[in-house]
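Continuing the series of single-chain predictions for the mutant panel. This is the parent chain; the variants come on the following pages.
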Amino acid sequence: MGFSAQKPTEPNSDHAIAGAVSGCITRFLCQPLDVVKIRFQLQVEPISRYHISKYRSVLQAFLLIIREEGSTALWKGHVPAQILSIIYGTAQFYSYNVFTKMLQQVPQINEWHHTMHFIAGAGAGSVGTIISFPFDTVRTRLVAQSSNHQVYKGVLHSCSSILRQESPKAFFSGLLPTLLQIAPHTGLQFAFYAFFTDFYKKHTFGTDTNFYNSMLSGSTAGLLAKTIVYPFDLARRRLQIQGFQHGRKGFGKFFQCNGLMDCLKVTIKEEGVRGLFKGLVPSQVKATATSALHFTAYEQVLLLLKILRC
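Parent structure:
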């Protein structure tokens, strides 16, 4: 099926549909973890129960958000995030299938099986990111703003405000660190997933990627890939809120920087190397759950489409 060493037989449209459905399901279930992760990433103060900082632990952050803003705040920015996930999932899996078919025309490529998955995954992640990035910026701004100082009333209002008060370029703030993160991250994710699904089949004597294989392989792939590239994810979030000081009242000190390298330098200078990994735990939890759901839903939808076609 989707990640076997053999040439994929499903039409590209099936991969696009499966990617869209898996993106939609995954986003809805994992949005609260994303909200908490972003809040940690944008907090300059140390994450410590012994320091005066707004968010000090994952559980405390969840409870504080619910107490101050209501349970619906855990789905802040869900509409643009859902649009983002559907567009990204469609573009990612569609282009992954296209890139895989192209690479399989290369002689002796099966000897470099996992490298092929890495290259195809990196290319697919880059395509999906560029197409869906404006929605990611809008989502980050909606999640980042305080309920007591709401700057944006919704998706359309945020889009019109950014265009009116800033420029179209603001929608792509942080695109460079995102691509630097997403290309190796997605490449590693697909390569790890292919490796672990093959490993699972070898030791269970299976031939197809089943539900349990997808869940275990997807969760492990997501955890490892996210941990490796995490600092770039943090830099992306911080770059996306530049020029948005007025919406961050009540969240502590505002993080100011100019570009990717400056963002990394300022973070290390003010918060130490550990500052580059703020929000890592909720991010790892989210990446593990998201990856497992994403790949599993994708594989199951592909299987369903195959059955319906027969």
